[in-house]
Specification:
- By secondary structure, the chain is of the alpha/beta class.
- The chain has eight helices and eight strands, in the order αββαβααβααβαββαβ.
- A four-stranded parallel sheet has the order 3-8-7-4.
- A hairpin with a 6-residue loop joins strand 1 and strand 2.
- The longest helix is centred in the first third of the chain and has 17 residues.
Length: 247
């Protein structure tokens, strides 16, 4: 472990010297390739969620005030009562470093070690630690062909490898090419746009499993809720959502 760390530090130093990379936010120097496109200082300035935060136990929405640890599972925002997923969590707010990372992933499928560490840390907290396999939120084939890749699948595959959980890439599919979600669309419009948009192609692969459903951003929860409904209809035991950020 020490040799690996020492080698990484040397390589990082050489890369920073020969090929300096500007931070996507402050334009300062990114001193380590492991933190990705954002410098350590901008990562430190970004709000990341921790197990100390009081949140809606179902959707992960931050809640005002504090609640005793033994009562955390009773906290509800009530806005997610009708959503199909079992629980949802994110690494932090859709701002700062996390926003920069999400936007970059839509252009180029590079997942930094730091981001992978944050996702793995979030998954190891209850209740996401119950997951038994990993599935990405799928893109419609036309959109994936247009983009060249599905960023959720890139993230999910690498995370599954880190967590040593099975990765199932093509069981959950998108069957309809719905309108892109636009800024300003309310929750009802977003839910309507993805209603019945997903299906499970190989139900035996999810039967009885606690699925870790991975995507980049949780906005209203419409997309992951529609995915969860399809997975639960295929007899998945639970759908545990994990995203990079929460808008």
């Amino acid at each position: 472990m020490f040799l690996t760390t020492a080698t990484d530090l040397i390589v990082d130093g050489l890369l920073a010297l020969v090929y300096p990379q500007a931070c996507a936010l402050c334009k300062g120097c990114v001193s380590s390739r492991r933190v990705g496109i954002v410098c350590a200082e901008c990562w430190q300035a970004t709000r990341l969620f921790s197990e100390q935060d009081t949140i809606c136990w179902k959707c992960g929405a931050p809640s005002l005030g504090t609640v005793a640890l033994e009562k955390r599972t009773t906290v509800r925002c009530r806005r997610c009562d009708e959503d199909g997923f079992t629980v949802a969590r994110a690494c932090g707010d859709y701002a700062g470093a996390l926003q920069a990372v999400v936007l970059a992933l839509k252009r180029e499928p590079n997942v930094s070690q730091h981001l992978l560490n944050l996702l793995a840390e979030a998954q190891r907290r209850p209740p996401l630690d119950q997951a038994t396999l990993v599935i990405p939120v799928p893109l419609h084939p036309d959109r994936e062909k247009e983009r060249g890749f599905n960023q959720a699948a890139i993230i999910a595959e690498q995370l599954a490898r880190r967590l040593k959980l099975p990765f199932v890439a093509h069981s959950l599919v998108r069957t309809t090419h719905s309108e892109r979600h636009r800024a300003g669309m309310d929750a009802n419009a977003r839910h309507a746009s993805v209603a019945n948009a997903f299906a499970v192609r190989y139900p035996r692969l999810v039967h009885g499993e606690k699925v870790l459903l991975v995507d980049d951003v949780f906005t209203t929860g419409a997309t992951v809720s529609a995915c969860a409904e399809a997975l639960l209809a295929a007899d998945a035991a639970a759908v545990l959502v994990l995203t990079i950020a929460r808008a």
